[in-house]
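Cast an eye over my tokenised protein here and flag anything odd:

===
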Amino acid sequence: MPQQQIIIDISKSNNAKEFQGSALIHQNELSIAQSWVKERIASVDLEKSERLHETITILGSRGSGKTSFLLSLIKKFENSDIAIIDIIDPTLIEDKGHVFLNVIASIKKLVEHKLDEDECSPMDSSFHLKLSWESKLKRLAHGLPSIDGVGTGLNEQSWQDPEFIMDRGIMAISAARDLEKNFHLFLEEGLRILKKKAFMVVFDDIDIDFKKGWPVLETIRKYFTTSKLITIVSGELRLFSLGIRKNLNQDLQYAFDRYAKGDDYLEGIMTEMESQYLQKVLKAERRVILRTLGEKKGSSNFLNIKIRTNTGEDNIEHAYESLLLNFGIKNKYQSKAFCSFLLNLPLRTQIRLFALSEKRPTEKSIFGVEQAFISELFERRFEINKVLGNPNLLNIEILDLLTRERHLNEGYQLQPTSEKHVLNCCLAALSFTYSNIVKQNNSFLVFDYFIRIGYVRNLLSSLGYSDDAQDSQNSISPSVNSLIKFCGLKQDGILRDITGLVTAYLRGYLNFQGQGSAVWAGTIPLKALGDFQKDKRDNLVDRVDHVFQDVRGDLRILGLIPLTISKFSIKNERIPSYSIYTLLSTIAELLKMTDSNDDNNKDDEDILLKGLQELSQIRTYTMPEFSSKGLDQEEEYLWTEEESTGFETIGHGRLAREIMKWKKRFEYPIVAPYLLGKISTRFFYALDSIKPKADQGLGSIFHSQIVSFMNAVLIEDIKENLSFQQININNTVYSDNILINNLSKVKHAVDHYDLKFSRWILSCPLLTGYLDPNADKLLKALDDFCLREGRPFHYEASVFLSLQMVSLRGYTNKNHTGGNSFQKRMESIINALRSRNIPRDLFEIGSLAETRERNDAIRESLNDVFGNDDYTSTKIREVREYIKDNNIKW
């Protein structure tokens, strides 16, 4: 079988018009409709007395090409034995202009135009034709007032007049009874004058306004019953069904009011009547269905559909694959799902999508693709224009849509795989919009998605949706709905504060479940703070506040960022909690703060310094008591009096500058939201495998969580962007080897740009700063993969050792043998100096010139211990003073 070819020229497909050859999309369907018309012409000469219902119905959704199809069909019979009446759109007919009158007027216009062209002398045959025509027209006109909406009818006063009854009333009733016959005679006379075999009348989109469409169907049923009138109707079958039921319902309203046999009984009657009406007026044997391009491709292996744009001509599947690349959709499996959805859209929408894509002036500009789905977005109450004006609202509005539709679990990746067409349109539009907005230097949306969408979705399996009865203003029960409301996830607030409330909510939920000490969903409960512990005689050294009381600068900032306090509402007890999600939300907030791409921009550095100071403040959030009602949220600063003296978090500036450099490395990668969704889910469930050990410090468990997050990012980025997948997809748990091996497999095998998203994420200084500085293989693998230049920040500023001194709630920390974290750090450094035989003289206190000379020697020979940055001198001074105060010798 030869391959059929369809070529859709975008520049010529914006308006409805007739198409021919390969430009005609519905070629087979046109052939079928054409054959039916020819059958009708052939049957005209066969005298039959029965009433015919042979209407040809062209069925298709909005934008499927029905009007162009009708125009193309009419074009086929322009110079034939058919007299063609111009297409009638009932929506354009005035309220007082009945469709039957419009058809009669159109036929009258055609016939009289023909008569005017001919000679009309009394001796000419045309004169007698005209007289006969006028006679038929008058006989037809007598019955027209009987049509609903045309005449005034016969009122009671008219029937009281005997003369009227004899003279006009009975005549009118007789004319109304004979209206169908007179109409057929009218058609026959017109065809005799025109020297044609049949009229063709075409009604387009009669289902749009069924107030106008219903009279069309009734006119067809009552009067268009002759072989000399070929009737063609277009519309959507579902809308026909709704319109017919609505009008039949009016006729059956009396039965609804009078009989009490139940709605099901009357609904059955309604369905049967609707079915029989459709079978009679729009019989199934004469229906042409204009299928979508996807349906056409699926039903034929011999169909080649091409798209012609300004850039050339391509197979439609390839064209869509190229289009999807602009939205970060590269994976063949994911691309196929999107292609299947797009190919099954109405043709008008598909043409609109390609037309919009051609208007993109530059690589970084935004496609206006959401405009192709604007009606669906509005129908689902998605404020797309508000989002385009304020990207901060993007994930908020997406969360609102998904929870409102109760489609969060299935739709969080924004893939158009729902059973609901309108929702699929919204999901696809939002997926494209998300990729568009992120690449416009809105990298914060990546981490914002991890919290608002990915995190919340993965909590759904445990919390579930709330019942409508429970989701009230005065009660709270464990559910995703109450979590969103309690934490303000649909508000454009500070994301770290929102995540702090999430942590408090989850700790309250675990208390409600009797698991108050559990490490779950990324939250790690710590031992009570020294000022709030019940037994003041307990050892304080493994409490987070005491560990960090002597830590300063950027290390202090790193240590406090993931820390929040969850407070009971009915008792004076607090649970410090560490959460990697709090860290991710902090990263999102910091990415929002800077607009410049200049590495040395002093204003941005100051903004980030202040942001780091603000976002590392320890805040307290009240946990919900699920047995309570009318619970209020509460937020406060912890140790507000002490913060100005002993608990400040002023950094040295290096961390802020590293964040600025890191943000610049974003390089506008195109990120599809389903990639972030897959990362979120892989990471969330990987956290479950990282169970705390009996003698473990906070540093090692948080290090493992960071590694697990990095591995999730890397695996999903590889699966999306590389053709090979020779990687280990298992969870890392407490072993770094899986991540190290995965990094080593791809570091040389791919181009620099292939995995630029994971390279960017894995080089974040706010992630690497928590890694174990002694994990040499891991750090080296990260440096090689991320293409770092110079000595990375985490070699000088890892907070791991301090965190390792902090104990988890309910566990003993083997890292403590007495003393505090500052002492531990000093002893570790001095042990390193002794093992390397470093002269103690370098740490003598001398004159300013001697100190500078000794510091230069220390920088050169002990770079791995003290680093070489803005606060190296501070570290050396701390060690020098500790040696002097404790009279340490070696």
Notes: Confidence is low (pLDDT under 50) at residues 361-365, 628-647. Residues 452 and 489 are 6 Å apart (CA to CA).
